[in-house]
Amino acid sequence: MTNYLSWLTNIHVNFAFLFYQNLIVLKMPILFIGAEDVHKNLETLAYVWKELGDKGASRHSLLINLGGGMVTDLGGFAASTFKRGIKYINIPTTLLAMVDASVGGKTGINFNGLKNEIGVFSPAESVLIDANFLKSLDIRNLLSGYAEMLKHGLISTHDHWIELLKFDFNNIDYKVLQSLVGKSVQIKEDIVEQDPFERGIRKALNLGHTVGHAFESLALETQHPILHGYAVAWGIVCELYFSHIKTGFPKDKLRQTILFVKEHYGVMPFNCKQYERLYEFMKHDKKTQQALSISLY
Predict the structure, then answer these.
(1) Among 47, 95, 217, 275, which residue is least crowded by beta carbons within 10 Å?
(2) Where does the record place the 3-dehydroquinate synthase C-terminal domain (predicted)?
(3) Residue pLDDT, tens place only, 207-261
(4) What percent of the chain has pLDDT over 90?
(5) Structural domains of the chain in order of their starting residue, each with its CATH number
(6) How many other C-beta atoms are found inside a 10 Å radius of the C-beta of residue 157?
(7) What one-character DSSP code corresponds to residue 178?
(8) CA dihedral for 115, 41, 7, 103, sign (positive or negative)
């Protein structure tokens, strides 16, 4: 079986260089793609397809996606569509990819200014998580992934939610973080197993994402891109506020969430004149059918 590698470039240069040397020894063809969300598009997808073809990939080849959420999303989509589908595995190197993007089978790209507009459900053959990658991340990328863990905590037990709120980002204990990652992955896997194609309970995993994706789309449109997890964190606050108004989501838990997000993520930099544009992005969200689709609790 021939292995192909979709490589991430947003790790420290020395770290990437060391990995490159190891892969040369394995004589594994390598595809380099940019890691930022601006590269999650048709142009990059076409590049991966072309490289797979030029390097002789067949329907029996295996694509290894080594990188963050952008790499696993796009790489999974490329594998799922190349020659009507080849197998792939994910090796997530960011917290976001470990707890969200690389698990659950969602693949895709951004299109026409909208987040993840084109894609398919196609689970990886395997997801290999090495918590040592977390030590290579800066605080902003750790927090970006942690937003998805907060989401999992909100739909899980009270005890898990509290331990997430207590985690100290000023004095990071990677053993504790590794344990929290394991719990977060299990929460998502349990839900995905019940509803792999998002027709019921899996919609709970969209908490924060209708508004969050609108924030991301607005940021891309204004050429001030933001990290996915930051958009999700701000989206969670908005959607929990809707939940408090519509379904009576507990005020104390809403306050806990607001304080945590404000302390660690700040506030979304936008003004009142952009409300209408945000609403337009939400109307075009892929989850929207006849009306806006927002996860309420």
Answers:
(1) 275
(2) 145-288
(3) 999 999 999 999 988 888 899 999 999 999 999 999 999 999 999 999 999 999 9
(4) 65
(5) 3-134 (3.40.50.1970), 138-283 (1.20.1090.10)
(6) 11
(7) H
(8) positive
